[in-house]
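Sample entry follows:

:::
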Amino acid sequence: MDFDNLLDQVNLSSSPPPQSPTVEPSIRGQSPSSSELAPLPPSAALDNKEHRDPAHGSQELVLHGTDTTSLSKRTRQGQLQFLDGQAIQKKLKLSTKEELRKYILAPDAEREVMMAANVFAIRDALMSIETSTAAVQETWEVPEKIQRNIKKYALRILLSPVIAEYDGAPALKLLMDIVERKLCSGLSKSIRHDDDGKWDKLTEVARYSLTQFKSSIKKAISKSYNHFEKIVQNAPCASGQDIIALCKHLTQIGKKSAGTTNLVVTAEMCGRISVLRYVMIDKPDSTEYWADVDKKLARTREMGKNDPKKISKLILASLDEDRRRFPTDQKSIAAISRVQPNVLQAAVDQALENGDIDELGDTQGADAEE
């Protein structure tokens, strides 16, 4: 039992002298002896170190002449024997060990104040950390090189012939996976999970890049034909940009902000862009262009029963229709059909198809020139 708790149970008041026993009337006229009538002397009660409570039958220890203040001081002095061991175990600094010593020797009232002061000190420290984190979030900006590379991959994703959704989250998710895997050189390896606001800023740059390039792609497609000309099926338009020229233009839309993207025009890219132009021509007044494109692609996968060969055949049908509307010379078509995507394009296509970004390599891998 703790010594302070023991003191609380100690009865420090003097026990009152016991009552004189009740004298019963003499049965045969005999008077009780003097020894029976005499009460216990007060000194006898004080000399007893224990007495039993007549009401409860409990035994209480009575200490006489004990100073609680001196007991408390002795307790604190006794606690000092543990100071060195705890200081070593907790690896306390000398100044902290001295504070602990003062706490051990302090009276109860001062201990309470010291504990309250420590609580407020912890609160102030936490508030200081929050303030520092907020300052980092406000002042840190995504490095220009990382921004440029984010834009390069954003365009590679949007011009991939296998991207399933333009208006959903998959494109952003893949882009952020690439950012974490390849583009965060010099930053914390746990940046996605760090609570310093940097990952949020990287995500903002990625989302903004996708939005801006989608707007640029849509604008370029819109300018590639005459909206006032009536388009007749299977008949060539009087004016308009052929699909190869349009795709070459799209690969250059990020040149100013992203630099060289290393994108090359392939037959598969031409097929995908023909679908994008077909949707715009088919729904010229739609305010949900990218959602309409996603629906068209979903319908194509459904018709092809998710068979890559059947889906490719449907996409080529769209490309043939585009070529009839905006004729392309046969020599250019033959040349494009032999072109293969470069390593980075192929890696992005694979990542979009199955979520595998291993082919993209690490920070200093195939993309080291960036």
